[in-house]
Design goal:
Strand order of the largest sheet: 3-4-7-5-6
Number of helices: 6
CATH architecture of the largest domain: 2-Layer Sandwich
Number of domains: 2
Number of strands: 11
CATH topology of the largest domain: 60s Ribosomal Protein L30, Chain: A
Structural class: alpha+beta
Strand content: 15-25%
Shape: rod-shaped
Largest sheet: 5 strands, mixed
Low-confidence stretches: 1-40
CATH class of the largest domain: Alpha Beta
Helix content: 25-40%
Distance between the termini: 59 Å
CATH superfamily of the largest domain: OmpA-like domain
Length: 307
Amino acid sequence: MKMIKLFVSVCFFMGYLIALPAAGKNGKNIQAKNYTDSLPKTNDSTVTIPFEYKQSALNFDYTFKLMDSVSAILLTDTLITLSIDGYSYFDEGNDNICYWLSQNRALAVKSYIMGRGVDSLRIKWVKGRSKFRSIERKAKKEAIIFNCTAEIIINYPIPEPPPVVGDMDEDGIPDDVDSCRNEYGDKAHNGCPERNAIIVPFEPQQSSLYSSTYKVLDSVITLLHKDPSLTISIEGHAYKKEGVKSLCEKLARERADIVKRYLLTRNIGIARIEAVQSFGDLRPITAGRNSWEVARNCRAAILLLHH
């Protein structure tokens, strides 16, 4: 819903406290009481226009500025509509006088708004509400902010919700552009996982080698010794649940580095390691929905390169 600002200046008039709204440049600075309309697909904002006691003529400078601001809003967006209610105060006269005062106040606002170029078809209703609201408020001992008023109810259309786009594997890539809808992947591979990566596991929040890490690294070493044409690239990764971003970046660097150092101690020549990179927590390979998936993201990766 479009937001409007309201500047309220307070003065005393005819023995009652009156809050006088003032509008600003381009009608962008009205703030009104916001509430949900009973009609579907609209949100409403109510802007109060004060009148002099027992009068239905518009004669305050701030009133004209306020209505000019409302008119500017309506002219900016043709989908916005409005309703106008007029009110009188309980001691302004008998029932007939109070009704006609309220009706004429609403009509005065309507005429002014239309005079600023707003089509009458955009006005849903113009009603005189007489003095009954002020009587109810007095009986309930409610604070009276405005005495003699009209109220402009600005009806903003609620935009249609965006279409729901599926993401079955929860990798953040919409199904309509995900080449592997049932496998967690990344944008670099059109939603598919890296097929050539050998996952080197680490314990969460740790960058030291442990039994599962050794098993994977030793199997890679065996492959490299069997095929001297193979080279590798090493990547370090962390998962967002392991800590703040700086910690994840540190873990990723340390994991990549310790994998490199272990391979060098097992007679894998430095020339066969083409790259060592770390990606922090930017490239998870699961959605992290359970402890197993979280652990899968705490890793290094070795990519086998054939030449």
